[in-house]
Amino acid sequence: MTNAVSPSAQLAGVRTMRASVLYDVARMEVRDVPRPEPGPADVVVRVTAIGLCGTDFHIFDGHGNYHTDRYGRPVPLTRHPQVLGHEIAGVIEETGPAVRDLKVGDAVILDQGLNCLSLGRDERCEYCTTGDSHQCEYYEEHGITGIPGGLAEFVTVPAVNVVRRSATLSDEEAALTEPLACIVHSCDGLSRAGGRYRLQGTSDRRVRTTLVCGAGPAGLLFVQYLRQVLAFDGRLIVSEPDPAKRALAERFGAETLDPRADSLAETVLERTGGRRAELVIDASGSAQVFIDLPGLLRKQGTVLLYAHGQSGADLGVLNNIQFKEPTLIAPVGASGGFDADGRPRTYREALRLLEEGRIAVGPLITHRYRSLDAVPGAFAGVHRRAGYIKGVALLGAS
Q: CA 305, CA 159: separation in Å to the nearest integer?
């Protein structure tokens, strides 16, 4: 499977496809690139819809580069351009000769992460053995760690990474299986981590108040998952400056506050009768959350650090946080073990929740881009404008 994203002048005699290529910080263009050929156990997926993730924007803006060499040093985009995109829905275009349970034309979603099973290793690493496949010893990730992602006409992946989907979901909704799977994985981590307070604990150890900081796609999915799947019936507060996002959070069962208009700590203290929140979920990526956290969190409460990108706060802010003896959880990604057929369990669970209508992702989609040619413009600051919640590139109907 080739990783090259070469200019079209170098592609004579090679099967090609079009892709949005990030060739330097904040510089993206549509190019002809090699179309990766499938191995015996691979499939080629024609991308029909792909969600634009905060991680994509993070990489585009130069605030992160997860393509590293063996020593953990980032590989510059100028040396190795990247095709981003990891929230992928599509249709099987081609199958390798060893693939028996998928066929051309099947509508699917993808787990973009490569682990021991998908890499065909005879022996699983300690992480894959325990269901922590996102931390696989040999992990790679389409669209994030340097191998080509879904902002292209096609993506080639191991067949075991592909989950067949029904016709009940639109392509754009199916593409959001991956971000929902990240929420499922995060909440599974909550239950495994223990801590003093539990969502379904006894009366004196039960989470009475959950505070979600940020009502972007992740924050809104957390609200729905807490209410609709985990049946959390306590106080659920969402802190979010954007009024449209606050309205959606309220629609999904939360009460909200505007951190620009009110003192976050004072408001939380007032609404909780002085207890503060037993569970704080940072879905904002704002360093201000860490600054405010000592006034938000109950002693020995739990902090779920979901968002990335925090900057601008001195590490000294941790002093008063550590004083409270919190349980800190930092989940990453969506992988969380395998079903009997080797396919990703967490993605299947997220897809089931979408297909059953228990989680709604349609209301989150505010921007749609109808071709690859529209993608570079979508990265040029649109996600920072008022009214933006989630963008999806629609690259062809299934």
A: 32
90 Rama class: left (phi>0) / alpha (psi -120 to 50) / beta: beta
Which domains are present in the chain? 8-176+361-394 (3.90.180.10), 182-329 (3.40.50.720)
Would you state the pLDDT for residue 2?
42
Cβ-in-10-Å burial (0-12, 13-18, 19+) of 79 comes to exposed
Radius of gyration of the chain (CA): 21
Whether pLDDT at 1 is above 50: no
Q: Give CA–CA dist 390/392, Å, rounded.
A: 7
Residue with tokens 């290529």: 21
- What pLDDT digit, counting tens, does each position of 319-330 carry? 888 999 999 999
Evaluate whether 88 touches 50 at the Cβ level (below 8 Å): yes
Check if the beta carbon of residue 143 is closer than 8 Å to that of residue 86.
yes
On the CB side of 303, CA atoms within 13 Å amount to 23
Q: What are phi and psi of 393, to 5 degrees?
A: -90, 125
Full DSSP string of 68-87: B-TTSPBPPTTTS-B----E
**Angle made by CA atoms 392, 2, 43, in degrees to the nearest 5:** 60
Q: Are strands 235-239 and 154-158 parallel, antiparallel or unpaired?
A: unpaired
> Which residue matches tokens 């933006």?
388
Helix (H, G, I), strand (E, B) or coil at 33: strand
Bridge-partner residues for 22, per DSSP?
Answer: 28, 82
Model confidence band, residue 9 (pLDDT cutoffs 50, 70, 90): very low
**Contact (CB, 8 A) for 366 and 387:** yes
Separation of alpha carbons 198 and 196, rounded Å: 7
- For residue 192, what pLDDT is reported? 87
